[in-house]
Design a protein that fits this description.
Blueprint lengths: L3 E4 L5 E5 L2 E5 L21 E3 L5 H4 L2 H8 L2 E5 H8 L4 E5 L4 E4 L2 E7 L5 E4 L2 E4 L4 E7 L2 E5 L19 E5 L8 H11 L3 E5 L11 H8 L5 E2 L7 E3 L1
Parallel strand pairs: 3-4, 4-5, 5-6, 12-13, 13-14, 14-15
Antiparallel strand pairs: 1-2, 1-16, 2-3, 7-8, 8-11, 9-10, 11-12
Helix pairs in contact: 4-5
């Protein structure tokens, strides 16, 4: 068996492994870089939602309802989604639990997490990242975050693939993301959250150069490209 990631643009990924057909931050409409629309997915059983901003929440509600999927997210956001009749696992930072496909752990992310409904904005708990285990592999999706010393704790997790923002402005930039890689020491790093909008323009090749080839291979995926591991 192999696990598979498909980059869908921005911070969105499709993740597949034994018992898992998942989406991470499915921003598939209104996303100029989206490699798929929300209707192109069926049989989704998990959605991993890092926080409530529209470019991450995306089509979460629609896809969860259509597929009867479980949304993994922080506790407060889960409460909000549950009130809409969506199945949730409302975990919290540092919490880890086992599910039929593998284990999930929530990690800290330095970012906001609003709940936005129309013009109303309210507290949505905290932003998070995920360590997702499937097929004996570990994927770290940092969510939107600045560089944080907590990332050094991930070295002991033996991360196979780290998905890291490089766009700057709202998150880590190329330089800080390269520093994050040196703390995490994943086998592979895949850059995300860049070039979707003018404010987050960044060069993934520069990120790869800064990381070098000491311990981590950088895979630059175009939207729609897959990586099997």
């Amino acid at each position: 068996h192999m696990a598979m990631l498909r980059f869908l643009g921005h911070s969105s990924f499709y993740i597949e492994g034994e018992g898992l057909k998942g989406l991470i931050d499915p921003f598939l409409e209104g996303n100029p870089s989206a490699a798929a629309g929300p209707d192109e997915f069926s049989g989704i059983n998990a959605i991993f939602l890092t926080h409530g901003h529209g470019d991450h929440m995306g089509s979460t509600v629609e896809i969860a309802k259509k597929n009867d999927a479980v949304v993994y997210t922080c506790n407060e956001m889960a409460g909000y989604l549950s009130s809409k009749g969506i199945k949730t696992e409302g975990m919290h930072i540092g919490g880890r639990a086992s599910f039929p496909f593998g284990r999930v752990k929530l990690t800290p992310a330095w970012h906001g997490c609003p709940i936005v409904e129309g013009k109303e904005v309210r507290y949505g708990g905290v932003a998070c990242g995920f360590v997702i285990e499937v097929e004996g592999r570990k994927i770290y999706h940092s969510g939107d975050t600045g560089l944080t010393v907590e990332m050094s704790l991930l070295e002991d997790e033996n991360i196979d693939v780290a998905l890291l923002p490089i766009g700057g402005y709202y998150t880590m930039d190329v330089e800080d993301a390269a520093r994050a890689v040196k703390m995490i020491k994943p086998r592979v790093a895949i850059p995300m959250h860049y070039n979707t909008f003018p404010r987050i323009e960044a060069d993934p090749v520069k990120f790869a150069e800064l990381v070098g080839e000491m311990f981590t291979e950088v895979k630059i995926l175009a939207p729609g490209e897959e990586y099997k591991f």
